[in-house]
Amino acid sequence: MLLTKSTVPSIVKIRGAPERMQDKFAASISKLSLNIFKEMRAEVSMYDIDNAHHVPSRNNNGQPKPIVCRFVRRLAKESIMNHRKNACKLNPASVGLPEDASLKGHGLGLRMLTWPIET
Which CATH class is domain 11-113? Predict the structure, then answer.
């Protein structure tokens, strides 16, 4: 890993996005994340996303696995966090999810994660 202990990565955690069969690869998860961010009206491009993947949660409770997105630019993450109140208003079909997917039932939400990562 290229990060040192003093660096703080720009990471956003997306909760409540239903898992899709095609979301096994980072590229499709990045595209889904980008669609969510664009529908929130955040100014983000695919080049801003370094990596995106599902992570297991400690207590599942029937909820889908959260998505963790790491960004190349801190400004992209800040744009997303400034528009996070729009996350609960998204239409599932507009971000590439099935129309019958319920984002409200899962409580779609964004959370900024910041912590030092050791090499």
Answer: alpha beta
